[in-house]
Design a protein that fits this description.
The protein contains 15 helices and 13 strands. The chain is an alpha/beta fold.
């Protein structure tokens, strides 16, 4: 399947509305219902008596794999549950968090989703997986909302049961491309996977918006132990223009560090080039580990979804970590995955509170969202509201409601804001040539 483009879903956003979930069951869903003890009369995700009981949700992410790992997301979800339950729960209801390891594997991702349906969770909250095509069918069949996914796949911006809190890779790469429009030649080093195939047109949309030609697309094995060949090729590609300094953009997730080791060795034989990437591939701990101010990331532009980790708007999340996860080295407050999980649970709490003493189920959670509930995140994102189709539906992202990114830069070894406030990439994405 390497190198194949994913076929864009052909369903119309909103087709699987709450009305469809209540009144129209497909043959597949009818069969699935048979597995529940009470039959199809029970809405998946029901918590029990209205105004009491336990709310069960799930958070999943890959852990202990050879490629991308996000152990801080499920770890923080458990910490959040301990914290909110110590405060009396949400509207008097205890929050029960189930976690699942998707192992960076399509089969495991599907198993996580089937478990979510079996356990009657009311939502999957603040999760990461590259295998949306494997897990969404089970979630959609059971009517379970996917709230606050990491944004690793385009499918998260098309499924009518997906409620993303950020702009995912589309916004990050479009924003980064805009920031690099003044560079000389640009080389993108990305995984040779279906998810990796989605990256070049997004980066190029930002480059083209700034009058820059498309990047040089370099595929690489996702879990390689060295990238000497890719580093040499990237340097050759970006150092051919003597007038303008070239830019190298590694987008290899957890393997960015491995690439930068190879890049650091190879760059001594080439003219100076600049590096740039997206948050999630690099954070402050990575910058420190690679030499800080004397390392390869000094001067790099990095786009993120949220304010820098030192911003006081993160104080609420840090309080949860201090009170419930002090010393848990899996949870890094600067990690974009942990931050996304915090925002997703912040949104989920407001959804449950909006239901008052009424039933909390997968159906009522989705209904509240589909009815246009507006939620705030303390300034970490704009006010969020999901509609069946939003501004970016025309380019295949009907569920993308937050296209804002932040532009950060590494100065004297520290990741700091390069520009005040957010950059809205909506217009750039509207002109993107995305054909998936």
């Amino acid at each position: 399947m390497t190198g194949r483009r994913r076929t864009r879903s052909t369903f119309l956003p909103g087709l699987l509305t709450r009305h469809a979930r209540k009144g129209v069951l497909s043959a597949g869903t009818a069969v699935a219902c048979a597995s529940f003890l009470a039959g199809c009369g029970v809405v998946p995700g029901t918590t029990g008596d209205a105004g009491g009981g336990t709310i069960t949700v799930m958070t999943w992410a890959p852990q202990s794999t050879k490629a991308t790992n996000k152990p801080g997301m499920p770890a923080f979800a458990h910490a959040y549950a301990r914290w909110i339950n110590a405060k009396g729960g949400i509207n008097g209801r205890k929050l029960n968090v189930l976690t699942c390891n998707d192992h960076n594997d399509s089969v495991a991702a599907a198993k996580c989703a089937r478990r979510a349906a079996k356990e009657n969770v009311v939502a999957v909250v603040g999760s990461y997986s590259q295998y949306a095509d494997s897990f969404f069918p089970s979630l959609e069949g059971a009517g379970i909302p996917y709230l606050g996914g990491y944004g690793a796949t385009n499918a998260e911006f098309t499924s009518p049961l997906s409620y993303p809190v950020n702009g995912g890779q589309p916004a990050l790469l479009a924003g980064l491309g805009s920031a690099l429009a003044e560079c000389g030649p640009v080389a993108l080093i990305r995984p040779d996977t279906i998810a990796g195939d989605q990256l070049p047109p997004l980066l190029d949309s930002g480059l083209k918006a700034g009058g820059h030609r498309a990047s040089n697309d370099q595929r690489a094995v996702e879990d390689a132990t060295e990238y000497d060949g890719q580093a040499e090729r990237a340097l050759r590609t970006t150092s051919t223009d003597g007038a303008d300094q070239g830019c190298v953009v590694p987008a290899l997730g957890d393997r960015n560090g491995t690439f930068m080791d190879s890049f650091r060795r190879a760059r001594e034989d080439y003219p100076e080039v600049r590096t740039a990437t997206v948050l999630g591939s690099v954070d402050q701990t990575v910058i420190d580990a690679t030499g800080g101010a004397s390392g390869p990331y000094e001067g790099s532009y990095i786009t993120g979804w949220y304010p820098v980790a030192s911003d006081p708007r993160w104080d609420g999340m840090k309080q949860v970590i201090r009170e419930q996860a002090f010393g848990d080295n899996r949870i890094d407050p600067a990690d974009a995955g942990v931050q996304t999980t915090w925002i997703a649970y912040t949104v989920f709490r407001q959804i449950v509170e909006s239901l008052g003493d009424g039933e909390v189920s997968a159906d009522t959670v989705a209904e509240a969202l589909d009815d246009g509930l507006k939620v705030t995140t303390g300034g970490l994102t704009p006010t969020l509201r999901w509609r069946f189709q939003d501004k970016l539906a025309a380019v295949g992202f009907p569920r993308l409601v937050n296209a804002n990114v932040t532009l950060q830069v590494v100065r004297e070894g520290r990741l700091v804001s390069a520009r005040k406030g957010f950059v809205d990439t909506t217009r750039t994405l509207e002109n993107a040539d995305v054909n998936y």
